Amino acid sequence: MIPIKIDSAWKGTSDCRNCGIRDMVLFADLNEQDFGEIQGETALGVFTLRKGMVKLVRATADGRERIVRVLRPGDVIGLEALATARYDSEAIPLVEAQVCRIPLAVLHHLSANSPRLHKRLMQKWQQALKDADDWLADLNFGSARQRVAALALKMRDPDQPGITSFFARDDMGAMLDIKLETVSREISALVRDGALKPCDKQGRRYEITNEALLMR
Amino acid sequence: MIPIKIDSAWKGTSDCRNCGIRDMVLFADLNEQDFGEIQGETALGVFTLRKGMVKLVRATADGRERIVRVLRPGDVIGLEALATARYDSEAIPLVEAQVCRIPLAVLHHLSANSPRLHKRLMQKWQQALKDADDWLADLNFGSARQRVAALALKMRDPDQPGITSFFARDDMGAMLDIKLETVSREISALVRDGALKPCDKQGRRYEITNEALLMR
DNA sequence: CGAGCGCTTGACCGGCGTCAACACCCGTGG
DNA sequence: CCACGGGTGTTGACGCCGGTCAAGCGCTCG
User: Fold this and answer.
1) Which DSSP state fits A22?
2) Which of A2, A20, A149, B34 has its CA 20 to 30 A from that of A42?
3) What angle do CA B148, A141, A68 make, to 5 degrees?
4) Which nucleotides of C are covered by protein (CB under 7 A)?
5) Pairing of strands B45-51, B76-77
6) β-sheet bridge partners, residue B65
7) Does residue B19 surpass a pLDDT of 80?
8) A residues 30-69 closer than 8 Å to B (CB)
9) How far away is chain B from the Cα of A201, in angstroms, using its nearest Cα?
10) Which residues pair with B98 in a beta bridge?
11) Is A208 a residue whose pLDDT tops 80?
């Protein structure tokens, strides 16, 4: 299930040609002829995240919520539906998000007929797998301090590398497998040590004031 | 780098047709004509694991070893080379292992020309990604006891579901992100509680005597 | 038979979970 | 405009799980 609110003002195919992040997305290599193949459909689809952040959630054996990854603009949601026509995990927006929907049938057709998209698809699979492994190796390893610091580095804004985005403390806990109180404590400690500085009063945006301190 | 010793007695293409695990592997859907396309090459390749177990390892930020996944017969090694012509992590056999090597150029050619292989490839990507997410959600969550129990369940022998395989204690620690002494303690506790029974004296094979106890 | 390696077990201690109180932000309604 | 209440983030006290260090045991192999 992908309960993302789709920006309904943005539909049809014409905008794809002028998409602001077209160089990051699945359709980056499509030419005018390929665009002709795209038709609106309502079935299962694959999504490209345009804006915002989305958490991939699955239930653990003991019923708690486990966040396996966070997707950011340019990432693909629901790629697995291409292979199995089912989604493996739940995708929930962490902030207001916008996605492009690509109908499954269209993608199947293009993947067989467009070598460019075929290659792009491979890259997206590879990126998703690498992200998953990175997430495990970087964020779920070591002390609580190391995990929070690693998350701060991973969630840097691509446009403003000095700024990083955090989330609700219990979401951060589900990402790092630590309790929300510990998350809060470690953030406070990093602020005290001069590694971070809060940008707002909700604890969502921080300035990275000492990058070296975060890296160890 | 994939330092797997390849069973040199097994080479050429003729054996593929009679491979005992052909229904599990990448080439399961190739027909006689497709086999004609395969030639021996020496370049980068993708591997299908025939026998044994392989750990996927990457270095963490602080230099320690982190095992991101364990591959078992039928799994594919080095799929990422298809997209980037590089390997993302190191693959090291945990026990004596046998692999099929599939040259990259061959796979690229077939992936474009053989719809059957193309579909099979998608499934392998999807399986790898699901395995990665499962590994994170099942094995790196909860108490040390829960992690060891989850590993025992995941490492059951497909042919003998009552038997499970363990590894060197420090490898298990690198999989579960706990120390080897804790691994040892928890295994002992599970044996004491009647959930497991050792099959050998090296601590590698155990009989599952109480499955329900392991599941919670 | 002895050396060496890996597994186990024990004692101790620190980090993190638990429970609880408190502070702060924000929306609601008087 | 302020009073109130709920939700979320922070901070404190305390106890336990798991990390650390060390000793002991049982294999395996020379």
Assistant:
1) T
2) A20
3) 80
4) 6-11, 15-20, 24-26
5) antiparallel
6) B59
7) no
8) 56, 58, 60-62, 64, 66, 68-69
9) 31
10) B51
11) yes
